[in-house]
Design a protein that fits this description.
3 domains; two-stranded antiparallel ribbon; about 60% helix
Length: about 180
Amino acid sequence: MPTPPITQFMDPEERAAWVAMLDDALDNSRGQADQAAIDRLAKTIHQAEQVDPAPVWPGILAQRWAREGMRTELLARAKSRATVMVSHKGHLVGKTALRSVEVVAKDGARQQQQHLWTDMTWEQFDRWRTLNRNQISALEINETAAMKIAALRVEAPESKTPGEACKQLGTTIEEVLAS
């Protein structure tokens, strides 16, 4: 069951204050959800908890974030326990042998679960392998686009951006990529 948005526990005034807190944290971090933004938001929420009477939502957020933090730690440990060494091009590379696979619950609902490679059914394995091949194909397309864009630098060495190179060459990025 999805977690309901925290705003459902807020009145309109609290909702506006919450959005202002989020904006303040982001504005002071150049719009990035970096550690400084997280620290600023945590401090602001802590200050909101000190108001008498304290609103309900800061406590709900703290509980959610604590559970999410626990989940993150558990997932990280599960992944580290499931790391195997794979020989690739003469090097041993650590890979997590845990993968998300679709399973059907007793009630017929489909859900994602983490399974080790060794515990996947062959059908799940085949779906995972197809997913890998599709991702490789998508990355190959990205690299083809990147090579075409990089060629613009050679053709227009005075340009500062690919868009500027296109202007200097009298073309568009769409024409370059489609060629």
